[in-house]
Design goal:
With 435 residues, this protein is of the alpha+beta class. 41% of the residues lie in helices and 19% in strands. The strands form 5 sheets. A 6-stranded mixed beta sheet has the order 3-2-1-4-6-5, sandwiched between helices. It is elongated, with a radius of gyration of 33 Å.
């Protein structure tokens, strides 16, 4: 048994001399096997061993007995022990979380308080098989199908290539005591149902099912490592200034496109799942937007896809306008009145009623000077590639009949300066100070 664990430790480089290793010690068979192994190589690796036990307050006296067992084991073997008592059910309810999720978070939060080089958990091959089936049932990616890795950051899993049966057979044969969680027999829990019902059915098809799972996970894990390395190499080709370049994405395979999207979301600390990846993937071939979460959107135009926070979109911006009227000759002849200096000007005499400056409204449309068409401002803003989160701050100029211009962009042909113009209206617009 020790030789088999040694092979795993060396294959994945899980231990080095002089490490301080924290054992996640529940008192169950797996964590006892883990502790027995680490004690057996303590001198060889010059290890300092510590242990952390979380008493979840779920199983009453049985849970407390497990805690006492762990304390006695650690005292007997000279392992420094830390114990955390929680009331998982009540605390999870207050936190609005499931008991399993809450308990897991509390465990790793507690582990992080220890000064150590590695945190050893007792996950084994049977746990990996359960995790794979659980994730497949819910829908998973290639990365998710890799299940529980032998190592992640500070966490190491020396038992990951042992089955649960191998562990218990070894402990029983050598009369090594361990605790038994009575809730393991309750199939109301998803993992217990997989462990007690589903996996035995697979073992009827193939008695070596768990080792077959191990081979499968090993194979796809190698593929996953290769693919992630490849994506790392091409990511900066497809992403510039935190924007996805659509023309470059189109030259890639679907697999590459979706993995780049996944990495893009992760790099921006945004949730990443199948629906979000598919939603952003659809933007590669169209100009639209996709809600990632809350007010955060992926927004696509003809050139790129970017992340936009449109939380300010609904806020009303108020504008102030300085109105200047000049005769057409002054407008045309004086250098300081060059057309290029003005963000908006028009034929004063063609204005109907009063001039107002406001934000865009849903029904707004315009017939831009120089173009024989009428279009909504939404379409115009799309064409002009005005960022969606900035559109509410673009001044729209109106008279009593409708929109006569978009400040800084265009004038409606109805009020355009022409050969008959006598007086020109020039506007200088700015946003009012909200303070």
């Amino acid at each position: 048994m020790k030789n088999k664990i040694n092979q795993t430790v060396k294959k994945y480089n899980l231990l080095s001399k002089g490490y301080t290793v924290l054992i996640a010690f529940s008192g169950g068979a797996d964590s006892v096997m883990l502790s027995e192994y680490l004690l057996s190589v303590k001198e060889e690796y010059s290890l300092t061993l510590k242990a952390a036990h979380i008493e979840h307050g779920i199983r009453g006296e049985e849970s407390l007995n497990d805690c006492r067992f762990v304390e006695e084991y650690c005292n007997k073997n000279g392992i420094e022990l830390g114990v955390l008592h929680i009331s998982a059910v009540q605390e999870a309810e207050k936190a609005g979380m499931g008991v399993e999720e809450y308990s897991r978070n509390k465990r790793y939060e507690y582990f992080s308080t220890f000064d150590c080089d590695k945190i050893a958990t007792a996950h084994n091959l049977s746990d990996n098989a359960e995790t794979l089936l659980f994730r497949l049932a819910r829908g998973t990616s290639l990365k998710g199908a890799c299940s529980i890795p032998p190592a992640r950051d500070k966490i190491i899993r020396p038992l990951i290539e042992l089955t649960s049966k191998e562990i218990r057979d070894y402990l029983n044969k050598n009369s090594i005591k361990y605790c038994v969680d009575s809730t393991n027999a309750c199939n109301d829990y998803s993992r217990n149902f997989i462990r007690n019902v589903i996996i035995p059915e697979f073992q009827r098809l193939n008695p070596d099912f768990e080792n077959a799972v191990s081979r499968f996970i090993s194979s796809i894990s190698a593929d996953e490592i290769y693919l992630e390395k490849h994506i790392e190499e091409i990511y900066n080709i497809a992403c510039e200034s935190n924007m996805l370049k659509k023309d470059r994405l189109l030259n890639l395979t679907e697999c590459e496109q979706k993995r780049i999207i996944s990495r893009w979301l992760s790099n921006n600390n945004l949730p990443c799942d199948f629906n979000r990846i598919e939603g952003i993937y659809s933007l590669i071939t169209c100009n639209s937007k996709f809600q990632i979460m809350g007010s955060i959107f992926a927004v696509s135009n003809k050139d790129f896809i970017r992340i936009a926070d449109i939380s300010k979109k609904s806020q009303t911006v108020k504008f102030k306008a300085e109105k200047i009227t000049v005769c057409v000759n002054d407008f045309l002849n004086k250098c300081e009145f060059s057309a290029k200096q003005f963000d908006f000007y028009c034929d004063y005499d063609k204005i109907i009623g009063s001039v107002q400056v406001r934000c865009r409204q849903s029904e707004d449309s315009i017939s831009p000077l120089g173009r024989s068409c009428t279009k909504t401002l939404k379409k115009l803003f799309n064409e002009l590639q005005i960022p969606i989160e900035e559109r509410s701050s673009v001044p729209v100029i109106t008279d009593d009949k409708g929109v006569i211009g978009v400040y800084g962009y265009c004038t409606d042909k109805r009020v355009a300066v022409d050969g008959n113009t006598k007086t020109v209206l020039i506007l200088k617009v700015s946003a009012e100070d909200n303070d």
